[in-house]
Amino acid sequence: MILDRFLLTDQVAVVTGAGRGIGAATAVALAQAGADVVVSSRTEDQLREVAAQVEAAGRRALVVPADLSDLDAVAGLAQAAVDEFGRLDVVVDNLGGSMPRPFPHTSPRFLEEAFHFNVTTAHALNRAAVPLMLESGGGSIVGISSVMGRVSGRGFLAYGTAKAALAHYTRLAARDLSPRIRVNAIAVGSVATSALDIVLADDGMRTTMEQVTPLRRIGHPDDIAAAVLFLASSAGSYVTGKVLEVDGGLEQPNLDLGFDDL
């Protein structure tokens, strides 16, 4: 059955930024496909709620509250997976983000912080995970990039640059780690998560965003989780070094932040 290729029966996954939004939806989706899941973010209460959903799907969850901007903490998730579940097969680098800023207020330090949070943390986890994944025969790494890594929008200099770097990191790491470990990413469009709460609460702004998006809607975290499952499972076994665009068809930003011209 073709649907069997989407199963992750008895595999083990690590998902960062798993307390809510895309990370939470992804952790639950992987569990529903048969995986045990290590979930990590700053907020333990949110992680406990996600863990309950993982367990409701009949799988085990390990909750690891941590400041994942700490490279030792994020790298430690790989060994935690093996210590708790005995193996590691899938890594989802969902940690990331950066607040929009006009060009004059985007300091070199702010740019470096965006790169650290979106790229360096992913590399720290992946580097720790790879030897452990190879012990289980191989595996799959999925990064969460953004449409802003390939289109230009005012105010997204730091975030877009970091996400573009993550996209190319994906291509380069895939060459380094093939054939036993596949590395892919998802370029995410506007998704209804807490990061967009303020925007989506404004009916006018939401309507504008939907009208600019070819599919005429804002994405749902499950849209991204389904794409992660494809890339992580054997359904995507002939895919590596690719950035899958799950963005409603966007070819330009669908949100005007209102920053003035210089």
Short note summarizing the structure:
This protein has 262 residues and is of the alpha/beta class.
Name the helicity range. Answer: 40-55%
Full CATH superfamily name: NAD(P)-binding Rossmann-like Domain
Question: What is the strand arrangement across the widest sheet?
Answer: 3-2-1-4-5-6-7
**Count of individual domains:** 1
Strand segment count: 7
**Tally of separate helices:** 8
SS-based structural class? alpha/beta
Please report which band the strand proportion falls in: under 5%, 5-15%, 15-25%, 25-35%, 35-45% or over 45%. Answer: 15-25%
- Average predicted local confidence, pLDDT: 95
The CATH architecture assignment turns out to be 3-Layer(aba) Sandwich
The profile of the biggest β sheet is:
7 strands, parallel
Sequence of secondary-structure elements? EHEHEHEHEHEHHHE
Low-confidence stretches: none
Radius of gyration: 18 Å
Question: Looking at CATH, which topology would you report?
Answer: Rossmann fold
Q: Kindly, what is the distance between the CA atoms of the first and last residues, rounded to a whole number of angstroms? A: 58 Å
User: Under the CATH scheme, which class?
Assistant: Alpha Beta
Global geometry:
globular
